[in-house]
Amino acid sequence: MRSHRLTTDSSRRPAHGWRFAACLPLLLTCACALHAQDAALAQAESLVGDGQYQEAYDLLAPQQATHPDDAAYLYLLGRAALGVKDAETARIALERSIELDPDRIAAHLALGRAYHALGEYANARNQFEIAIRFENLPSDLLTQVEIYDEAARQALEEGRRTTTFGYAAGGIGRYRVNSTRGTNAFGGGDRRDTFYNLRVGGGLNHAFGNGYALDATLDYRYRYYDARDTRDDRDLRWSLAGSRSFDDGNLALGLRGRVSYRGDGDYRNDVAGFIDYSRNINLENQLALGLSVQRRRYPSGPLRDRSRTTSTLSAGWVRAFADGAASFSFTAHGGRNTATSRPDGDSDVYGATANLDYTFSDSLDAFVFVWWERDVFNTDRIHFHPDALDEGVILRREDNLYEGGIGLVWEFAQSWSLRPEVLYIRDQSNVIGFNYSSTEAWINVRKGF
Prior knowledge:
Elements: H1 2-49, H2 53-60, H3 71-83, H4 87-100, H5 105-118, H6 121-131, H7 141-157, E1 162-177, H8 181-185, E2 191-209, E3 212-225, E4 233-246, E5 249-263, E6 266-280, E7 285-297, E8 308-321, E9 326-338, E10 347-361, E11 364-384, E12 392-413, E13 416-429, E14 436-448
Helix pairs in contact: 1-2, 1-3, 2-3, 3-4, 3-5, 4-5, 5-6, 5-7, 6-7
């Protein structure tokens, strides 16, 4: 029996050997093909890195049919197509690359650049903000995307880990305090002043790799009024945050602050810790969530009792439309003011913001926004009521605050823009002294660098 089994097993070996021998050329062919593909991708990556986009495109383009699901190949094809000014091919390749591998940060930057080249500014911003988040940017979509596009160019084409932007703006405007019961009661209603303003600042993003980055910005604003009895405004805003990009989203954790001159030697200091999360639901829609705890402090002077801590939750939605040329966003927020010395006590706050922006061309943009917040206090005290002028009543203070603005941006030369804007503010309260309204109109010239 043992001999028979040995004989039988031995008789089968040659058959296995023939099968292996028959498959060997096929295996060698496949191995050689894979090696050749890897070598081609390595060569293309080197060419893209050296800025030889036409050579890389000529090498990669004929292989599209054999790499429909290769994220690395599609990324390189997109980069090469972008380099030879074929933004549409770049868009198609990079969208598919991100679909297969959403954690590739460079692909988001490259896709943002492709959208920018195609005039799809809203889609471009959604992609850029997966990798880079700058605070204190201008209100308009056109300038925001140009700032992000330059940062992406620095990262992709120059290989810079630290990308930067800067700006300076200045102009002239007119400020009017509108007539309300509150402003009239204190002799400030219907006052008009001419002002001159200056704004300078910039920011940086440092990429550590694996989706981690550090973002920082500074923004200084100054306004000088012609009228002697009007204070000159000074305002310094800053931010510092670490961020992590993953799964088509961005999570940022950091600090932001503001030091403001309030007149008569008084200052206001704001410092907030925040967590912001945004995620692209698809190419046209972005979801944003935020948590902020802010301490507002008046170090000295008559406004000191207004110091308070504000905790806020927010949820927002950004929608690109008109083939990516326009953007609509809506954000709701709610929270509470605590740790305050205000006679009216703590307060609950809730409100909303809506923005609409349309880029007519690569040099013309228009935007409009509205903001509303309701502030409900928790302490009864004697006030003058708007409907009972000069008559004291016991009530709880309730405020409704409104802001609305509209602006136009015309880029008349490379990195130079003319920017007329109008801002309307209305504070309504059941307490006379907190009713206020103003209208501001100005025109600035801005230089980016």
